[in-house]
Amino acid sequence: MTIALVSLLLTIAALWAMARLSRSDTRTARLATPAIFGLLLIWLWQAAVMGFHIPRILLPAPTEVVSALFSHTAMLRRDFVQTFVRSVIPGYVIGCGLGFLAALAIDRSAFLKRGLLPLGGLISAMPIVGVAPIAVMWFGFGWQSKAAVVVAMTIFPMLVNTTAGLAESGALERDLMTSYAAGYWLTLLKLRLPAALPHIFTALKLNSTLALIGAVVAEFFGSPVFGMGFRISTAAASLNLDVVWATITIAALTGSLSFALLALAERAVTFWHPSFRNPS
Q1: Where are the domains of the chain?
Q2: DSSP string, 185-199
């Protein structure tokens, strides 16, 4: 009864605080609102596990997840390096780079635009659970197969968004560049690529989460004796749900941090875009 009453009071206080903060447009308010909401969810999770006596093999409490993070630090660090550093980052860079170059090629050729875009749609529609085993058979159990899956998942979003972004510049701006005797590459560098940056950053942010998901899922189908996907699979099979949730927490924090860093880079690079202008 005490836990239920405390949970009710905390929920009311948190909702009141978030309602007050939502009226402010300061950076502190924008950061505090999701932080309060997240802390409230964690407390309700802890209270539900304690109040309803949920077995830890079904849902461990947040305190048990934190304990697993500290007691298995070395193992989880090795899993993080294997998955994120060795698989996600190379696959992300290669996939985004190839998608960007393919968009430039499509922009120069109507033939490629008619051929590559439908093919890219076909590749993006393939289920990851079907691609991952094939990648493991082709590239082995190391990081190469996971990076290949990441490339397959990230190339098409970058291709589509960059292609759309290159068409953002208006006809008047392009005519002005032509009147200055600017060629294709100078127009691309000075006008069309800057106009496409918001679309490119949209693809980069989207791919930052897709890449991590792809690498983790690919590790379910074959990996060395470490990796985040491998750890989730083996820990779940042995009913170590605290380790499973600890790994999931690391993956979620990594994806969120990657997205946030790209959003900050976007704001710094595309500060001129109307979406970042302060109307006041």
Answers
A1: 2-53, 67-276
A2: HHHIIIIIHHHHHHH
Residues in contact with 193: Cβ distance below 8 Å, sequence separation at least 6, in sequence order: 166
What pLDDT, in 10s, does the model give residues 65-103?
A: 999 999 999 999 999 999 999 999 999 999 999 999 998
Q: Which of 190, 162, 174, 27 is nearest to 97 (CA)?
A: 162
| Cβ pair 217, 144 in contact under 8 A | no
Helix axes 128-139, 193-218, angle to 10 degrees: 80
**CATH architecture entry for 67-276:** Orthogonal Bundle (1.10)
Question: In sequence order, which residues have a C-beta less than 8 Å from that of residue 165 and are 6 or more positions away?
Answer: 195, 196, 197, 198, 199, 200
